[in-house]
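INTERNAL TRANSFER SHEET
From: sequence group
To: structure group
Subject: O-methyltransferase

Please process the attached sequence and return the structure record in the designated field. Keep the field labels unchanged so the import script can parse them.
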Amino acid sequence: MTAPRLLRGVLLAGGAVAAAVVANELAGKPIPFLRWSALRMLVDLPGLDKRGQVGDGRERALALYVIKNSRGGDIDDVIRAIDEFARKKSFLMNVGDEKGEILDAAVRRAKPKLLLELGTYCGYSALRTIRAMPADARLYSIDINSANARIARQIWEHAGVGDRVTAVVGMIGDSGTTIARLRNDYGFTEAALDFVFLDHHKSAYLTDLRRILEEGWLHPGSVVVADNVKFPGAPDYLAYLRANEATLWRTVEHETHAEYQKVIKDLVTESEFLGKV
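Return from structure group:
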């Protein structure tokens, strides 16, 4: 293909996408992924996975929107406002409402007392977890981005649940610093951890789970839920679960959709730990 023809094809494709986005905007954004905010996020997905924010200020805008448009102390209304922002304002990489119900059900079944979340983002999945976990449970949420931690704390306080969750800035794979904090400051001892939610760097799912196993924090019956196993995907993690089915893990694969839409399919895994490695 000649350069002029290639350029013409690119321009035509770009024009078609722009026209579709405009039409979607005029129709009230019925297709969440067909929006400028979603396209920007998808284009920069590798960078987003590393820094934890889109880079256009939508995370800070979310916090302001939630405080303005939801009732303080009402966790249900705060969750509603976040979903509303993601559908009508700027697309967010939250677990979302559809997959959030899978997370809710898993937490209720596990009845955990000590919970760990890898990937705080703006605190949405933590809100859903807190709502479903027992009243005397405690959640620790880890994110490498300090701005995310600040936004999440602000939203949690507004929802009236700031005393039930701790935001920890760091990462499990930081040469032991964060693991040491969890162990020494927050009571992560042998067989103490009941529930883990993975929703951070997809390439780190398996290595971070193995680090948690090496620490001995899980016990038979501990539950690990992982989001985005199909999209963007964590193939090595899924292969590991399948290879160790009925020996180390008992896994349910929940077929679902990526956040806030019904076109792109996704997979959420819910895995019960069966015993020591």
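Handover comment: The beta strands are 114-118, 138-143, 165-169, 193-198, 218-226, 249-257, 265-273. The chain has a mean pLDDT of 87.
Transfer complete.
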